[in-house]
Amino acid sequence: MKAIRVHEFGGPEVMKLENVADLQPGPGQVVVRVKAAGVNPVDNYIRTGTYAIKPQLPYTPGSDAAGIVESVGKGVEGPASGDRVYLGGTLTGAYAEQTLAEVWQVNPLPAGVTFAQGAGVNVPCATAFRALFQIARAVPAETVLIHGASGGVGGAAVQLARAAGLTVIGTGGTERGRKLVATEGAHHVLDHHSPGYLDELMKLTAGRGVDVILEMLANVNLAKDLTVLASKGRIVVIGNRGNIEINPREIMRRDAAVLGMVLFNASRQELASIHAGIVAGLENGSLRPVVGKELPLAEAPRAHKAVMEPGAYGKIVLTT
Questions:
Q1: DSSP per-residue codes, the chain
Q2: How many CB atoms lie within 10 A of CB 179?
Q3: Which residues pair with 171 in a beta bridge?
Q4: Within the chain, what is the greatest distance between any pair of CA atoms?
Q5: What is the pLDDT at residue 174?
Q6: Is the peptide bond prior to 110 cis by the omega test (within 30 degrees of 0)?
Q7: Residue 241: its pLDDT value, please?
Q8: Do 250 and 256 touch, CB atoms closer than 8 A?
Q9: What pLDDT is recorded for position 53?
């Protein structure tokens, strides 16, 4: 089979398409014929060798994929050959024609969801679900501000929050992105490049502020976020690219909380809960992954450059 391989940490150019041996499942494992693989910003960080998790070289990037079960190992119950599935992580990497996964990482892909959409499920949707419901503990009737709501995580958060009965305020940096945020169900859409967008937010909430903020770029926004939180509000830091100075008094006077999260910290039990919720959303249509760009597997370097560019719009996927 063909797979993208990384033999040294570095820029996007270190990813090479190579021929490697076909995979065989061990006990409790499943081999999936990959139809589409999702590209996430974290894949970039891991490839550079600067991320907290550093794989052993050489390795195949990616944790998100959708495809068809090709074979199963001994003791596997549930997934069967021919099943359409999406993966919540892999053992051998997703940027390949085949990938190997533990049975608990394999989830059913409903018939109405394309493989490209399925490749956009794991990291974006699971991150959004965990941030909203397991970290922030958002509940119906609360108001949530979702920064970068036109991207993979942000778009999933808009859909999940709207379906759960929250009032959703989303931001986007381009007109195209803001139209997408509105289409996906946000009650209000703001331009985060506009100097007065947080003043507009305070007007929308009658001066109260928001209960929950999902923050994709904390080094730019965190200090300002603290000024628009409601009493006992929570900020969940999902993304960050540098240092920032904040005034802790803004946290103190609101009895507020700034919380961090990384999906990799979720326990097996928490992941099971996350994916049960995701599959239900995919089945009933309340969760609809948006694919912004599809590229062939060989163009993984181009995909890694694109996923880091401003003006996010849906999910970037690699097709095999």
A1: -EEEEESS-SSGGGEEEEE-PPP---TTEEEEEEEEEEE-HHHHHHHHT-SSS-PPSSB---SEEEEEEEEE-TT--S--TT-EEEEE--SS-SSBSEEEEEGGGEEE--TTS-HHHHTTTHHHHHHHHIIIIIIS---TT-EEEETTTTBHHHHHHHHHHHHTT-EEEEEESSHHHHHHHHHTT-SEEEETTSTTHHHHHHHHTTT--EEEEEES-HHHHHHHHGGGEEEEEEEEE----S-----THHHHTTT-EEEE--GGG--HHHHHHHHHHHHHHHHHTS--PPEEEEEEGGGHHHHHHHHTSSS--BEEEEE-
A2: 14
A3: 190
A4: 61
A5: 92
A6: no
A7: 86
A8: yes
A9: 82
What is the predicted pLDDT for the residue at 311? 75
The residue written with tokens 């599959």 in the block is 279
Q: Which two tokens stand for residue 206?
A: 């009658």
Go through the chain and tell me how many residues it has. 320
pLDDT along the chain (320 residues), means of 10: 98 98 97 97 93 92 97 95 97 98 97 96 95 98 96 94 98 93 97 94 97 96 97 96 94 98 94 97 95 96 93 88
pLDDT value of residue 55: 95
